[in-house]
Amino acid sequence: MDLEIKKDITSNWFKMLQEAIWHTITNLERKDANIKTTVWNRSKKRDEGGGEFRILENGKIFDKVGVNFSKVHGKFPKQFQKNILGAKKDPSFWASGISVVMHMKNPMIPAMHFNTRYICTTQDWFGGGMDVTPSIKDDKEKKEFHKTLKKMCDQHNKKYYTKYKKWCDEYFYLPHRKEPRGIGGIFFDYKKDNFEKDFKFVRDVGITFQFIFEKIIRKKMKKKWNKKHKELQFIKRGRYTEFNLLYDRGTKFGLQTGGNVEGILMSLPPLAKWK
User: Fold this and answer.
1) How do 34-41 and 92-104 pair as beta strands?
2) Alpha-carbon distance 203 to 185, whole Å?
3) Rounded CA gap, 265 and 146, in Å?
4) CB count, 10 Å around CB of 11?
5) What's the pLDDT at 272?
6) pLDDT, tens only, 83-122
7) 20 to 30 A from 49, CA-CA: which of 107, 114, 179, 259?
8) Among 167, 76, 89, 68, which Cα is nearest to 119's?
């Protein structure tokens, strides 16, 4: 398949998924909330693509949720080239993707994160995943979450779940705290064996995330909580912030490739605490 066709169908999917997820979010919220939609360009001097991020804050369900779509191209900075697959000899790149981060009003509902992307240098590949970060322990929810992920992964390859769960556990870990960020999920990168099969998997990851977050929210949105629960959530958000600023690849990639700063940092919670 021609590379330009691959770029078109992947970016169209990510944009369509942004619309679908946003529709579910606003349908769940069902009340007036602060909504901000920003269309941005990577460069003001020339056409290097851009994207659109949507943020909803101070809602009944969500304290803050962001859904970001991007489609950008250009050249990697010289100091960054050696760290990117296929960019050492030719710094040109093209990238498109979607990222979603949800911070909930009700501390009984976990924070949730998802992203998928397609990157082209002299090579091209998919990456992404999802993970869940609860403030209040819920073993049943953890079991159901991983069962759903395993079922989806097994439809593509029986080895995917074990491999990508392990990768997620290792990636979403705070070395300085010696603790995981949450209850894990799946994480994958440099997926470039077979475009058709890999793209089908990436689409299923997005559809599964939409199913998971809506199911969890609807199940827990009316659960009672108190000030103590909220304090635990604030502390957990502090850990979340530490990971995203210190270790997250997506944050680093976006900032080092001239992405929209507000869109990149939409993953940060509106309020957090440390102790």
Assistant:
1) unpaired
2) 16
3) 27
4) 21
5) 96
6) 888 998 899 999 999 999 999 999 999 999 999 999 999 9
7) 114
8) 76
Entry pTM: 0.94
Distance CA 268, CA 131 (A): 15
Indicate if the alpha-carbon torsion angle 82, 84, 87, 91 is positive or negative: negative
Strand partners, 168: none
Could you give the CA distance from residue 255 to residue 249 in angstroms, rounded to a whole number?
A: 10
Q: Evaluate if residue 257 carries a pLDDT over 80.
A: no
Segments of 42-168 assigned E as strands: 49-57, 62-75, 92-104, 111-120, 124-133
What span, in angstroms and rounded, lies between the C-alpha atoms of 206 and 262? 23
Among all residues, which ones are annotated catalytic? 113
Q: Could you tell me which of 107, 113, 60 has the C-alpha nearest to residue 232? A: 107
Q: Which residue has the higher pLDDT, 187 or 47?
A: 187
**Can you tell me whether residue 226 is helix, strand or coil?**
coil
Specify the 3-state DSSP secondary structure of 216.
Answer: helix
Give residue 223's Cα distance to chain centre: 26
Identity of the residue numbered 32: D
Contact 156, 205 (CB under 8 A): no
Kind of pairing between the strands at 173-174 and 111-120: unpaired
* H or E stretch covering 240: helix 227-246
DSSP letter at 261 equals H
